[in-house]
Amino acid sequence: MRLLLVEDDPMIGKAVRQGLLNAGFAVDWAHDGAAAELALRDAVYDLAILDLGLPVKDGMTLLESMRRQGNHLPVLVATARDAVASRIAGLNAGADDYLVKPFDMDELVARARALIRRRAGSGSSQLVAGDLVLDPLRRTVTQAGAPVALSAREFALLETLMQRPGAVLSKEKLEESMYGWGEEIGSNAVEVHLHYLRKKLGAAAIVNVRGVGYRVAD
Length: 218
Ligand code: CA
Description:
The protein is of the alpha/beta class. It has helices spanning 10-22, 33-42, 59-68, 84-92, 105-120, 152-163, 171-178, 189-201, and strands at residues 2-6, 26-30, 47-50, 75-79, 97-100, 127-129, 132-135, 140-143, 146-148, 206-209, 213-216. The longest helix has 16 residues, at 105-120. It is elongated and about 55 Å long. Bound molecules: calcium ion. The site of calcium ion has 5 residues, from loops. Residues 8-9, 51, 53-54 line the site of calcium ion (CA).
């Protein structure tokens, strides 16, 4: 899952980005409102985490213009402005949830997952393909009922494939879902993670459509 983090404070941004990476999200970090606007035009995200006090274009203005343009991306506002008035203003402007700084990283991750799940709409958050069951919330995978231990990257890769059962996803598409801006990506990083994934799940679990990409087996 790909997140847009909009935060101008370098210390907070760095810590939050790292926390989100550790939780298995791909993260793009925009340092001001205008950069965030550009990012939203170019990439598809599952969630934005938005600071309100931002240079160039403040978070509230950005949020209002997003909603005016019909962009329904879930937005979690994370800000130091803890006054009740601004909290209400933020929610009225179209924020889906609100966290006051300083916040606990675990809570941010839990709320981010809840918003993404809510948007996905289904009552059950579990993804199923063949004998594989992936729970995005609990971060667990079972195969024929037996738990499988995956690294954060392997999990992200499998989750992306299982979100689109039957679809063949290119290596570039898989890379995009796993890595944010500025992350060092080895030229064969996706292949390496797929190799380990297949080693753990069995080679037949992920089908390589030669020259096109990969899909999860039915
Ligand atoms: Ca700020």
